[in-house]
Structures are given as C-alpha cells and as structure tokens.
Design a protein that fits this description.
Alpha-Beta Plaits, binds flavin-adenine dinucleotide, 4 domains, Uridine Diphospho-n-acetylenolpyruvylglucosamine Reductase, domain 3, Uridine Diphospho-n-acetylenolpyruvylglucosamine Reductase, domain 2, alpha+beta
Length: 476
C-alpha cells in the first residue's frame, strides 16, 4: 500500500484533531518517524495525537474510509521497528502520547485503570502512592507507554515472579480497525464467558487495533529486598543455581539475570562510575534478587544460605550481597548498562531469543560453537533474563568487517543462531516482538498452519490491512 493519502481526508483528520493534535512538518514529525537509536526510519503523511478514545475512534474511522494505513505509536522505545512507517509516506502515525489519564484506582480489587499514553514509570508511581506495586520493570520505563507495553507484551526483569504484560492486564479498551470501540475494561480475575479477546490484542504490535486503555493488576509492595551479584563458571551452573534458588527462596525469587565476562567488562569501560564488584574477572555473572512482604533478617539469611550451598557445590565462584540500597543500585546499574556495553564492544548482531530454561546451556554451547567455527573472530556477547529462558545473545562482529560485508554476514549469523533456537523448541522473539525487524525470520520458522491462523485473525479484524502494515505478518 504505497498510494499517497487523499488530501481531502487528511484535511478532515486535521479538522477532527485541531492544531494541538496534528504534526505535519518534517522537523516536527522526525522524532516519531525515527526509532530509538535511529535504526528504523520512515515517512508519514501526518502524525496524529488524539487526546481521548473518542478522538482515536474518529481518526481510525476516517482512515478506514480513506483507506489510509495507520502506524500506532506509544513511547517509541520499541527495538523491532514496529512503530515506524515504511518509506512511502502513505501512512499516518497515531501516537497515544496525549492520552495520559489515570481513570480509576481500586485498591480493594488491586487494580489501576489507565489510558494508553501513561508511561510505565508513571504507572509505577501511581501504584506506589497507594502502597501497591506495579511490577513491570524495563530500562526504558521513563519513556515507554502502557499501550506500547501491552502491544509488545513487554517482559523485563520481574517476569520470573510476576509474569509479562499478558499476566499483568485484566482488561482492555481497543479501537478496532473500522473505528468501533471495544470496551473490555473488566477488572476480573476469573472470566470464562467466551474467548479471551484481550489476549489477541496484547502482543499484536498494533496490527489488530489501537489499545486506548487498560485495567492493570497491582500487587502488595515488598518491604524487604535482598540482592546478590555472583560469579559463576558457565550457563550450566546458572541453571543449576536457579533450581536451588527456586527451592530455597520459593515465590520470593524475583529476578535472575545473566551476564557474560565481555559484556560486564564493556559495561564498566563504557559507563563512568561503574565498577565490577570483584577484583578478578570471571567467565559469567548472575544478578539474583529476592523480595518479601515482611521486613527483617529472614530474606538476607535465606540468600546467604543459598550462596553457601552454591559455593559448596561449585556453582558459585564468588559473590557479594548488597548491604545497602546504594549498593543494590550499583549492582543493577551493571545489568542496566548492557546496551551501552554492547555499543562500546562494537557492532553486535542482536537476538532476543527464548528456549526452555533447561535448554539454556545447550543453546549457548551450540550457538557459540557454530558461530566461532564459521567466523573465528566473532566476540560472544550475552546477557538476559535467564530465569525466563530469555537471552539477548548479541555476538559482536570483528572490527575489520567492512560496511559492505556486514549485512550479509549478519543474515548468516541470524540463521546460525535461530536454527539452534528452532532446534531446541525456542522462539526468535522472546520480548521485543517481530516489528519489521523479524518478519521474514518468523515466516521462515513458523509452520504454514500457524501462519495461516495468524493471517485468518488479521483478515477477520482488519480486512483492508490498514493497521500497521508490514509488521508481524506480511500480506501474501
Ligand atoms: C533501553 C531499553 C531497554 C529495554 N528493555 C526491555 C525489556 O527489558 N523488556 C522488554 O520487553 N522490552 C524492552 N525494551 C523494548 C521496549 O521498551 C518495549 O518493547 C516497550 O514495551 C515498548 O513500548 P513503547 O510505548 O515505547 O512502544 P512503541 O515503541 O511506541 O511501539 C511498539 C509497538 O507497539 C505498537 N503500539 C504502541 N502503542 C500502541 C497502542 N496504544 N495500541 C496498539 N499498538 C501500539 C507499535 O505500533 C509498535 O508495533 C527496551 C527498550 C530500550 C530502549
């Protein structure tokens, strides 16, 4: 779909939105047309910024009439190019960034109803003000918005205990591709009255409709946190230690993050003020956190007991426990600096894979061996939410590869890594979605039956293919 939109329809959209809701100069639209990090860029006839569900519905209805494709956008922090249009200028971008209302807080039901443009950090703060926790935690939380979190089924560092956005949303309000509003804003924990429609829209990356509001689950605020940074010999030790941690800490285990030696060293080199907690270098590291409702010594002792057993069994080589809030933040800073570390190390080929937790050691061993056999100069670079079986496995290309060589080699690296993932029953996108980045890879690895089912859902909801075309699925 590359035809320029009818100027008469664009004028009607301008009229509906008013000056506050429309951007059309190249300078004003540039930040919306360009992705985080500048990797994906596109063209758009207009950027529309409705301030209410009714305005979204009106915009979508007019676009449906004029057959104008819509690219939904939240905080524009997505890493798969899902919020960027193609280069034709045929689409409009619909940003929910002016939809910022907190509609309801129900502390008895432990729910919060917010509009799609509320940032994740704002949601966390509203929950804190009523002495509750909204547990989704991402390094992009100051900018990403709840609509985008839902549309990508965001994960992050607390999935192990609380689940991803699929588990954190009880209800949704969605503007459908024909402009109708589906009010599914139910705050129910049990609801077996037919298909669970909200789950169709969660993770659909804007291809089935515009999420305008959501009912989110809240949790009791933990009163105590215990955090350790541990050096370990290899991924097999990480998974064995995860088993011990689950057995000893039970539900209080809330984060279990893995880093590899080069990625930690690059984080320390890239970010001023960061330091490794250890004098010597080890091959792999874990950041493990537990949290509990009751303040007191119990959690710290449980973590010490876990580490003692890990050391005794040779799973842990060395470890520090955070003795203060400041020390805890320093340990987390090492994990959160992995994006900067990646940039410092060189040009990486990024993967956001998941495999069954039990298959993590086999995945790393097989992917490393296959890559190093084909490209001996490659630098393994790995970090991620290993407690969920999710790794950002981002090998860094040798510095002497030229700009001309890199695209073809990156494609080859993707194929090597994703073949191992597929063979182990894994997924090529664990938390960032497919966007435009991984559409072709998904077509390669998904079965014909699965692709047919996805196309049938898309055709049923969006028969004219106007919602975020080219993302998740390509038209046949
Ligand atoms: C530093 C950094 C760290 C990150 N860490 C994590 C992490 O740990 N875990 C993780 O899961 N992700 C992570 N991300 C990726 C990103 O932050 C998440 O995908 C986030 O959920 C995207 O939200 P957003 O509002 O920025 O969405 P956008 O980037 O604006 O959009 C993402 C997708 O959702 C669609 N969309 C947006 N809003 C709506 C809506 N209202 N209705 C329908 N569709 C919509 C868009 O069309 C697009 O396809 C990270 C990103 C950065 C930059």
């Amino acid at each position: 779909m590359t035809a320029r939109p009818d100027p008469a329809v664009l004028d009607r959209l301008r009229l509906v939105m008013g000056p506050a809701g429309v951007l059309d100069s190249p300078a004003d639209t540039a930040p919306f047309r360009t992705s985080f990090g500048g990797i994906f860029r596109g063209e758009a006839a207009l950027v529309l910024r409705p301030a209410s569900t009714q305005e979204v519905a009106e915009v979508v209805r007019l676009c449906a009439e004029g057959r104008i494709p819509i690219v939904p956008q939240g905080g524009n922090t997505g890493l798969a190019g899902g919020a960027q249009p193609d280069g034709s200028g045929a689409s409009v971008i619909l940003s929910v960034d002016r939809m910022r209302k907190v509609r309801a807080v129900d502390v008895v039901n432990d729910t919060l109803t917010v509009e799609a443009g509320v940032t994740l950090a704002e949601v966390q703060a509203v929950a804190e003000r009523v002495d509750r926790l909204f547990p989704l935690t991402l390094a992009s939380e100051g900018s990403c918005r709840i609509g985008g979190n839902l549309a990508t089924n965001a994960g992050g560092t607390q999935v192990l205990r609380y689940g991803n956005m699929r588990a954190l949303a009880l209800g949704l309000e969605v503007v459908l591709p024909d402009g109708r509003i589906w009010d599914g804003l139910r705050g129910l924990r049990k609801d077996n009255a037919g298909y669970d429609l909200k789950q169709l829209f969660i993770g659909s990356e804007g291809t089935l409709g515009i999420i305008t509001a959501a009912v989110l689950r809240l949790f009791p605020r933990p009163r105590a946190t215990a955090t350790t940074f541990a050096a370990i010999p290899d991924p097999a030790a990480a998974i064995a230690f995860l088993g011990l941690a689950k057995a000893r800490l039970g539900d209080s285990l809330s984060a279990f993050e893995l880093m590899r030696a080069p990625s930690l060293a690059h984080a320390v080199a890239a970010v001023p003020g960061l330091a490794s907690p250890f004098a010597e270098a080890y091959p792999w590291y874990l950041l493990v956190e537990a949290s509990a409702q009751e303040a007191g010594e119990g959690l710290g002792s449980a973590l010490e007991g876990l580490l003692a057993q890990g050391l005794e069994e040779g799973l842990v080589l060395d470890a520090v426990i955070a003795a203060s809030g400041a020390q805890r933040r320093n340990l987390w800073a090492l994990r959160e600096a992995q994006a900067e570390a990646q940039a410092h190390a060189g040009k990486g080929v990024k993967h956001d894979i998941s495999v069954p937790v039990s298959a993590i050691p086999a995945f790393v061993a097989r992917a490393d061996a296959a890559l190093l056999a084909r490209f001996p100069g490659i630098l393994p670079f790995t970090f991620g939410h290993v407690g969920d079986g999710n790794l950002h496995y981002n090998p860094v290309m040798p510095a002497d590869w030229t700009d001309e060589m890199r695209p073809a080699r990156a494609g080859e690296i993707n194929r090597i890594v994703h073949d191992v993932v597929a063979d182990l029953g894994g997924s090529i996108s664990a938390e960032h979605g497919l966007g435009q980045l991984r559409v072709a890879e998904a077509e390669h690895y998904k079965s014909a039956v699965e692709l047919d089912l996805m196309r049938a859902v898309k055709a049923a909801l969006d028969p004219h293919g106007l919602m975020n075309p080219g993302k998740v699925l390509r038209a046949r």
